[in-house]
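Form 7-S
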Amino acid sequence: MPRASQPHSPESDLAARRAYVAVESAPHVLAPDLAEFCQSGISVIVGACVAGETPVAATGYACRLMPGNRFRLVLRKLGNEGLLEAVERGGAIAATFSQPTTHRSIQIKGSGAVVLPADEEDRREALRQTDGLRLELIYIGYPPAFAAAYRHVAEDDLVAVDLTPDAAFVQTPGPGAGAELKP
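Output:
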């Protein structure tokens, strides 16, 4: 992995979460800046597991914050059937969001996940957010053709996974990595 040109520190995300006070009627696991970070056009890796079975992972295309403190993860259906089946069977789900230029990373773990057809906004966000990651990859030195191929979106093969985030964790390398983002 290339060295981050603008390294991020886990301490800043932990301090921001401690300073954020969610409204009791609408509690959020993530402070608004981290919710925006998840939707900014970065790497999204989704994992799911049914108890006693092998975990499965997928590359996500986008994340959208939905009403009711729900997160929508947009990914490709083809090749991710095992992950989608695990979600439909009530498996545990997690998503990790990482920014290549800073290595800033967070993970959310959620419940109540459901698989839904992708809608037009999901398609738009998949295109916008994958273009953001494409630019990140080029910035850190990957060839433009590789970055474009890596982030190619098959618009007719998108599916959405909606979940309620229950916990979030700092995954940025350094002191504090793995710490839960809680008030």
